[in-house]
Write a sequence for this structure.
C-alpha cells in the first residue's frame, strides 16, 4: 500500500492531479477539499494516499489531511458506497459537517451531494453512526453543508470538475453562471457553496 507521496505538483485539473516523485509521475484523484489547498503547479506537495485496486485499474486517491483519508476509508466500508461516492461526499461536505449530519440523522443534507440519493444517505447515517467517532478530529474547511468546458481556462476547468463530481452539464453551467472570476479552485468552491441554499 502506498501511504503517502511527496514530490512536485505537475498538473491539476479537478478531480485529477499529477505528482512527480523521483522521476515517476503519479496520477491521483482528490476531493475538492484537498484541491482548495493545493499549491501552484511546479511547487512541492505531500499527500496522504489510498490505493484502490480493481480488476481493470489501480487508482490512487490523495488527501491533504489524515481526517479526510480516514473518513474516505470508513465510507468505503459502507455497503453500496464506492470510491466515486466517497470522493463526492468529501467534495461536498467537510469531515465536521459529515459528522454533524450523521449525528443529527440529517439525510436531506447528504442527498444534496451529487451521486448520493435518499437510500445511500440513509445507509450512510445508519452504518456510520457507530463508526463516526473513530474518524480522527473534525476539520472545518471548504465544502461544508451550507452545498462542456475548455480545459485551458478556469471556467472550463471548473465546469469539467463539477461534471466529474456528478453534476449534470446543465446544472454545472447554472452553478457557474454567477461565478465570473477567480482561479479554478475558487470558482468550484463558490459554485458548490451556491448549490445548497
Amino acid at each position: 500500500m502506498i501511504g503517502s507521496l511527496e514530490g512536485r505538483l505537475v498538473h491539476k485539473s479537478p478531480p485529477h492531479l499529477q505528482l512527480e516523485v523521483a522521476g515517476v509521475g503519479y496520477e491521483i484523484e482528490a476531493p475538492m477539499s484537498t484541491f482548495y489547498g493545493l499549491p501552484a503547479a511546479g511547487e512541492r506537495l505531500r499527500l496522504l494516499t489510498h490505493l484502490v485496486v480493481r480488476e481493470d485499474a489501480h487508482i490512487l486517491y490523495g488527501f491533504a489531511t489524515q481526517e479526510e483519508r480516514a473518513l474516505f476509508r470508513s465510507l468505503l466500508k459502507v455497503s453500496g458506497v464506492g470510491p466515486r461516492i466517497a470522493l463526492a461526499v468529501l467534495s461536498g461536505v467537510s469531515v465536521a459537517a459529515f459528522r454533524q449530519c450523521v449525528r443529527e440523522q440529517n439525510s436531506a443534507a447528504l442527498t444534496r451531494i451529487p451521486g448520493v440519493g435518499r437510500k445511500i444517505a440513509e445507509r450512510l447515517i445508519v452504518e456510520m453512526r457507530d463508526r463516526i467517532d473513530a474518524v480522527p478530529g473534525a476539520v472545518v474547511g471548504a465544502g461544508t453543508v451550507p452545498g462542456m468546458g475548455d480545459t485551458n481556462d478556469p471556467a472550463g476547468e471548473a465546469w469539467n470538475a463539477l461534471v466529474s463530481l456528478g453534476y449534470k452539464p446543465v446544472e454545472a453551467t447554472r452553478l457557474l453562471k454567477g461565478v465570473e472570476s477567480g482561479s479554478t479552485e475558487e470558482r468550484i468552491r463558490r459554485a458548490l457553496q451556491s448549490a445548497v441554499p
